[in-house]
Design brief:
Number of strands: 20
Strand content: 15-25%
Structural class: alpha/beta
Radius of gyration: 23 Å
Length: 482
């Protein structure tokens, strides 16, 4: 049964993107539409959106949005994702900025105001557009206030609407001083430990968790992990209290963008039926990074945010041992200054076998996926992860830590079975031991080719996830009607 779903998110590809959230929201709504749902999306009108000169038009609609003591006018613009409607909330003093959430110096000082305006503005826009949704679906802390508004201020205008909240990364919670609670305009009785209050702060992600009918995460393993102290980021108690409403649904990927047989970014296309082009892709990426190794040398690719979460603390300790092996490595990413400097210095020490590019570069990312033999993701935690899934399709064998979505998507190689390599212990020793297993198998060309072909048959398209979300819509609608 098709449902009317309103999706609110702080980034949606191709309009605005800082990470995986945008990729998910650029693809999943289209997969849901294919199952019969009517989807409407809402996004802030950032400078990044305006700079792309996409076909976005004025609707002639303005809504008034209370933000603390202010009563602000917000203009509504309209664009399209495929043939889905995307509405943009335009208020230049909040969204006409160089970045989405902050600069290198830190988060914007008024992020609470910015995303209060967006969250409440989405509801006001839905009223102005006379939308009658079955489900309001909010994503991450930036929209965490939406379920609270629907539960309180707007409960009579949307009396039985289902509220779903998705956590894409629990580490980012939207915490602000409790003294700023009045900015939200929510009833004062929500400003306590049973509501938004969180260790003398208010927590917008907690708002989404507490006031939604259903909470989801982006992999099954991650939904279990975040109920533990190790991965709960202080929220484990709240999540355990909502365990009966917490579900994990694995992200899919968009194979229209990530498939070596049609990829426009790579040196030569190839497929499971004809792998010859992969050698050209390897030659191309070695040349781009200026590495002087034989074509037969195993090439390890890394595309990542350079941060502890992504395992760079253990990887930095393992690099001495790794560089002693007969291999080459290319690293693409930006992040913490200490890791940027470390890897740039390592590249100077190993100029023939280690190439490092401190950047976010989509074209180079595609080239690394296609040209590498092995893809390394030693994450401390990983809500879902997408690069390991891309790697499978490119016949680039993943070596990952068994956590979150990495654990859900990669079957460990053993006796001719599996699609990659994964290790459990979070240590430099565990990482190097598993990587050496992969390097040993790489020498067995017949077994390695069989492993590549198995990896390339794995299917993580959005279809299966869309069906699971469709089932959850009915669960949430039933809960909301009680």
């Amino acid at each position: 049964m098709g449902r009317l779903i309103i999706i609110a998110a702080s980034e949606i590809a191709p309009f605005a993107k800082t990470g995986g959230l945008a990729d998910v929201l650029g693809a999943l709504p289209l997969a849901l539409q294919a199952t019969g749902h009517d989807i409407t999306l809402f996004l802030p009108y950032y400078r990044e959106v305006a700079d792309k000169n996409l076909p976005i038009t004025k609707t002639g609609i303005e809504v008034r949005v209370p933000v603390g003591k202010k009563n602000l006018s917000v203009e509504l613009l309209k664009g399209n994702l495929g043939n889905l409607s995307v509405y943009f909330l335009k208020r230049d003093e909040y969204f006409d900025r160089s970045q989405l959430y902050g600069t290198n110096d830190g988060d914007y000082f008024d992020n609470l105001e910015r995303f209060t305006l967006f969250s409440r503005g989405v509801i006001e826009a839905a009223l102005a557009l006379k939308l009658k949704p079955d489900v309001f679906w909010a994503h991450d802390w930036q929209t965490g206030l939406i379920p609270a508004y629907l539960k309180t201020i707007y409960s009579k205008k949307f009396p039985k609407v289902a509220k779903i909240f998705t956590i894409h990364n629990l580490a980012y919670q939207g915490r602000f001083s409790a003294e700023e609670f009045s900015v939200t305009g929510l009833p004062e009785e929500l400003n306590n430990a049973q509501g938004l209050e969180f260790w003398d702060d208010i927590n917008l992600l907690k708002s989404g968790v507490i006031y939604s009918d259903v909470i989801t995460t982006v992999s099954e393993a991650y939904s279990r992990e975040i109920e533990t102290k190790e991965y709960g980021c202080g929220m484990e108690g709240v999540l355990v209290s909502r365990a009966d409403s917490l579900y994990g649904i694995l992200n899919g990927v968009d194979y229209a963008l990530w498939d070596p047989s049609i990829d426009e970014h790579i040196a030569e296309n190839y497929s499971i039926k004809d792998l010859k082009g992969k050698a050209s892709c390897k030659k191309d990426i070695l040349k781009e990074f200026g590495l002087k190794v034989k074509q037969s040398t195993p090439l390890i690719g890394i595309i990542s945010r350079l941060a502890d979460q992504k395992g760079f603390d253990i990887l930095s300790k393992a690099m001495g041992s790794i560089m002693e092996e007969d291999l080459a490595m290319v690293v693409l990413g930006t992040g913490e200054e200490k890791y940027q400097e470390l890897f740039l210095n390592l590249a100077k020490n190993y100029p023939k076998k280690l190439g490092v590019k401190i950047a976010f570069d989509n074209a180079t990312a595609h080239k690394i996926e296609a040209g590498s033999d092995i893809f390394l993701m030693p994450s401390h935690y990983e809500p879902c992860g997408l690069n390991q899934i891309y790697s499978l399709r490119y016949g680039t064998v993943p070596v990952v830590r068994a956590t979150g979505g990495l654990d859900d998507t990669i079957k460990d190689y053993k006796n001719g079975r599996g699609c990659g390599f994964k290790f459990k212990g979070y240590s430099a020793l565990s990482l190097t031991k598993k990587l050496k297993e992969a390097l040993a198998l790489f020498k067995d060309k017949k077994s390695w080719k069989a492993l590549m072909l198995r990896a390339m048959t794995e299917d993580f398209s959005w279809n299966a996830s869309a069906e699971k979300y469709s089932e959850l819509f009915e669960v949430a609608i039933k809960k909301a009607s009680l």
